[in-house]
Design brief:
Chain lengths: 214, 808
């Protein structure tokens, strides 16, 4: 789905990624790579196949968009080192585009590790007209804060007692919060107000939903 | 030491032992195991413990270490049993003691028990497993000769029953002469209860039944004006006056409610209506602090209270002399439970018990008749045991690995010897071993899975101390929703409350708890800090677990009653007449050979309501099947509601009943297959999986208190469920969730019968101009399932997000 935010055209992907054609920039928040192996290392038997979902989704995105820079908006790697980091480095080093990490609270690996994977690491980044961070920042106006951390999801209501919960892009006046990209991540149900907009992830499309006052 | 006979001692004290007590002593002393079928308050503790002491008296020597384990389902009961048995023990052996080992036992006491093991140890299934997770536990148990399992009828229908089965089979593997005694109330399948606990019947086991039987009288309460009787279920407050009158005219009364919320509301309303009861009215439910609960139990014993409002928390064990009257508010959902509650009243056995039934909505009056019929015919429901509970087995194997480690081969035999795992295949066993050793993966080169390792002797042992610690914490948290302690800001515990309720409250919100109005100040660590509030505008916690289904027996009785002309002269039917007239006017009253379907439209959407009278569990499955079959005809989304009388499909599109009939959607063909495919099964399995994930140790609930961080290990059972569904559908824990939704939730056989019955019936479709009396409890039900054959995108497009009110 294509939206225009402060005169910039952006494409919202049902994978949860955000593409900015003018800059050939792809944004991904909360990938939580390494989570599967972190759990397994601690004796919790998650199926190892889950960890491939990141690579499958990103491979698909790369056929769809021409990417010059890939921005990870934090929580790229779930915890301390495990073998999934090796997989990620191998993949990252094969990619020709520039890779940038905005540090998240889960990214506790030493900075040198991220640099080995060819990532430029920042705590936040000014990318006019955007301002990139992991945690949502309130006062970035007039810049638009692109961020993650929240894992936003929304509860939708319909006639006949229907309801549905789904991950979403959460747009506030000067902020766009991305849904979590990772395959094994939960979501936080947001409570939008009239000035907010939510874009819900369907199976193969992103949908702007109607709003109704209480 | 002089020879003492326990029976003489009893006679000396002026107590005449009852026949079942003597029979139990005799069998016990002959070395037998057994099941004692005796109601609460009948002296069952003495029946068993008398035998234990007599044996000790016969031996003449003082015993060493722990000789007897007493397993009870509730910690609160444990206190009671420990006091009774210790008092009795001290009368003969002043130096012997009985200890208590539950989740509440302080660390210092545990250490003491290890150094100086008490003669008897009262414990819960979880705490017994914790003992097995200690190193050197076989040494600790080496003098154990008897295990008593109290309230076995309660335990056997739960996974804690499986815990007991596994623990017993394990103990027997190194204590071959262990005597096992169960105590159970009357249930339909007492034989099976005995077999599960003791194994196949042999000469060395016995069933002892106490023969006391009380006459039970059921009296239904009606409002003075039937027109004011609500159609849809509520709290029954409209009958407040009658209840106040009952309390006034009886020396003591017990009021049973089905939920803790109902309990709280009734307490408040009674005090408003009859302020003179203040001080003589108390409340008893599972969330109230232990000290307060014990006070209430004690006051009941000493007749200091005029009335107590309680939930099932007073169903079990707790011994007190009977009250003069019992009131059941709303449907008890089972004959056994109703009888147990009724049995709480009646001072003299020959006089019998009296219980008032207070219907919360009109149709429950029919239920009252069904209950009376069931009591007359003495049909009591079965308790269904769990089969193949792999989650409990995974937990148990880890418990052994944490303790002294285990050898797979002999362990397989121990597991196979239980009733629960009698059909366990070698293949499943291999899968389970692989699950705890390799995280159910096979060909992984650099997998870092770590939980257990195999030592040189071939023993499976736990891999690290942190995994062992997490496992121990997990045993204790079996199947309870995380609960938080409610405390006054200035100190003083009030009780515990489920986390999900607290999560709905904001700072400053006022809620009613334990009969008090409390304002939420803040939540910190695992504590909810509150202060007293005078605000009238409060929220009442609605605890989980309020929804039970009719037992099979009761729904059979309900059907029999509804269509039975001989009951039509009872006061209940007379009271119902205006409502039935209205039903006839708007729709119809079905006969035995008719199956009623009603359709009507409201601003909520298009309703189709079906009335098979089969009980909630069957309706849940039926609704899912019909909705699924219909959704194959047209892309459509439904929400489903069900109760004990029928079920409802609600949609934003009209539901074409003609198409439903013409396409033969009510057929018995492919029943199970359709159920499997209906989304509802996945929904049910997802719910079942919550417990499974916790028990099997997938979901780590965090450390109690905040001292240790759980280091990025928290995740919800839902996420696990999705991941297994998508990536590892042959995972036994995932399959177990699906199987449990089938066997326990809906009882396949009954479902088949229900559809067969409908095939024989004439289908009557009524288009009603407005909701009918029968439909009312259903359409006002807010807890709903959904089923859809539309695409996610199509559904999202029709929906909207509800906005929060803007601040300012």
């Amino acid at each position: 789905m294509i939206v225009e935010i402060h005169h910039e055209v952006l494409e919202l992907s049902p994978t949860g990624a955000l593409y900015w054609p003018a800059n050939k920039a792809l944004f991904i928040a909360d990938a939580h790579i390494g989570k599967v192996m972190h759990f397994r290392k601690n004796g919790i038997a998650l199926p190892t196949e889950v960890r491939f979902s990141f690579y499958e989704k990103i491979a698909h995105l790369l056929t769809q968009f021409e990417v010059a820079t890939l921005y990870f908006l934090g929580d790229l790697f779930h915890s301390d080192h495990n073998s999934e980091w090796v997989d990620f480095c191998r993949w990252a080093n094969q990619q020709a585009f520039k890779k940038v990490l905005i540090e998240g609270n889960h990214d506790i690996l030493p900075k040198t590790r991220f640099e080995q994977a060819g990532l430029e690491v920042y705590t936040a980044l000014d990318l006019a007209p955007f301002y990139l961070s992991h945690h949502p920042i309130e006062a970035t106006a007039p810049k638009i804060n692109l961020c993650g951390h929240l894992h936003p999801g929304v509860r939708l209501k319909g006639l006949g007692g229907q309801y549905l919960k789904a991950p979403c892009f959460y747009k506030k006046p000067h902020q766009l919060i991305l849904p979590a990209f990772g395959g094994f991540t939960g979501m936080y149900i947001i409570k939008p107000t009239a000035e907010d907009q939510v874009y819900v992830l369907g199976e193969s499309a992103v949908i702007a939903v109607n709003k109704m006052k209480k | 030491m002089k020879k003492i006979n326990i029976q003489d001692w009893f006679l000396d004290k002026g107590w005449t032992p009852q026949r079942f007590q003597k029979a139990t002593w005799q069998a016990y002393l002959a070395g037998k195991s057994g099941l004692l079928n005796a109601p609460t308050g009948s002296g069952k503790t003495y029946a068993i413990w008398g035998g234990v002491l007599q044996r000790q008296l016969d031996i003449g020597q003082l015993p060493k270490k722990t000789n007897v384990l007493w397993i009870t389902p509730l910690r609160a009961l444990g206190v009671e049993i420990q006091q009774t048995t210790e008092l009795l023990t001290k009368a003969f052996f002043p130096t012997l003691s009985v200890g208590l080992r539950t989740g509440d036992t302080p660390q210092s006491e545990r250490v003491k028990q290890k150094r100086q093991p008490p003669f008897g140890l009262v414990t819960t299934p979880e705490s017994l497993h914790l003992l097995i997770s200690n190193k050197g536990h076989q040494h600790f148990f080496e003098n154990l000769h008897t295990v008593v399992v109290d309230e076995w009828h309660e335990l056997m229908g739960s996974k804690r029953g499986v815990q007991v089965e596994l623990a017993l089979s394990y103990l027997k593997s190194f204590l071959p002469n262990l005597q096992v005694w169960g105590i159970s109330a009357t249930i339909g399948n007492l034989d099976l209860a005995q077999q599960i606990l003791l194994g196949r019947p042999t000469e060395n086991q016995i069933l002892v039944q106490s023969t006391q039987k009380k006459k039970i009288e059921v009296v239904s309460l009606f409002p003075k004006e039937m027109e004011t009787f609500p159609w849809s279920g509520h709290l029954g407050i409209h009958l407040l006056e009658q209840v106040t009158e009952i309390i006034r005219t009886h020396p003591s009364t017990l009021l049973f409610t089905n939920t803790r919320a109902q309990c709280e509301i009734w307490y408040q309303k009674l005090l408003e209506k009859a302020p003179e009861l203040a001080g003589q009215l108390a409340m008893h439910h599972g969330s109230i602090d232990k000290i307060n609960r014990l006070w209430v139990e004690d006051a009941l014993r000493q007749h200091r209270l005029k009335a107590v409002i309680c939930t099932s928390s007073l169903d079990l064990g707790v011994d007190f002399s009977p009250v003069s009257a019992c009131v059941q508010i709303g449907s008890p959902k089972g004959v056994g439970r109703f009888l147990q509650r009724a049995g709480r009243s009646g001072h003299q056995p020959q006089k019998g018990s009296k219980i008032y039934f207070l219907p919360t909505h009109a149709i429950e009056l029919i239920e009252s008749l069904a209950l009376q019929k069931a009591i007359k015919e003495n049909t009591i429901e079965d308790r269904l045991p769990y089969l193949n509970s792999f989650d409990v087995l995974v937990q148990f194997l880890m418990t052994l690995a944490v303790g002294d480690g285990f050898m797979p081969k002999p362990c397989f035999e121990i597991v196979k010897n239980t009733f629960c795992f009698q059909t366990l295949t070698l293949q499943q066993w291999q899968w389970l071993l692989n699950f705890i050793q390799k995280g159910s993966q096979s060909l992984e080169n650099y997998d870092e899975y770590k939980k257990t390792y195999v030592d040189d002797a071939g023993k499976i042992c736990v891999a690290s101390r942190s995994i062992a610690m997490r496992h121990r914490l997990n045993i204790g948290t079996i199947m309870s929703d995380a609960s938080l302690l409610v405390k006054y800001l200035k100190g003083g515990k009030i009780g515990t409350i489920e986390e999900w309720f607290v999560s709905k409250l904001k700072t400053g919100d006022v809620f009613t708890f334990a009969g008090r109005n409390l304002e939420l100040v803040r939540i910190q660590a695992m504590e909810v800090l509150v202060r007293k509030s005078k605000s009238k505008n409060t929220k009442i916690p609605a605890w989980m677990g309020g929804r039970m289904s009719f037992s099979a027996h009761l729904s059979q009785m309900l059907r029999a009653t509804f269509f039975a002309p001989e009951t039509s002269n009872t006061p209940e039917w007379k009271a119902l007449r205006p409502l039935l007239d209205r039903q006839r006017q708007l729709s119809m009253l079905p006969e035995t050979n008719q199956f009623l379907i009603e359709t009507f439209t409201t601003k909520e959407g298009h309703h189709a309501v079906f009335y098979p009278f089969e009980g909630r569990a069957v309706h849940e499955a039926m609704a899912a099947i019909i909705a699924y079959r219909y959704s194959l005809l047209y892309p459509i989304s439904f929400t489903l509601a069900y109760n004990d009388y029928g079920y409802e499909l609600l949609s934003d599109q009209p539901i074409d009943i003609e198409a439903l009939i013409d396409n033969n959607l009510l057929t018995t063909k492919d029943l199970i297959d359709d159920l499997r495919k209906s989304i509802n099964l996945a929904e049910m399995a997802r719910r079942k999986f919550r417990d499974i994930a916790v028990i099997a140790g997938l979901v780590f609930q965090g450390y109690p208190q905040k001292t240790l961080k759980s280091k990025h290990l928290q995740s919800s059972a839902q996420l696990f469920f999705e991941v297994f569904k998508d990536y590892e559908p042959d995972n036994l824990l995932y399959l177990q969730a699906v199987a449990e939704s089938f066997d326990h939730g809906m009882e396949q056989g009954r479902l088949q019968q229900a559809f067969e019955r409908i095939e024989q019936q004439e289908i009557c479709w009524k288009k009603a101009a407005q909701p009918t009396p029968f439909s009312f409890p259903l359409i006002t039900d807010r807890l709903r399932e959904k089923l859809s054959s539309e695409t996610v995108e199509d559904r999202i497009k029709k929906m909207y997000v509800q906005l929060e009110k803007q601040l300012q």
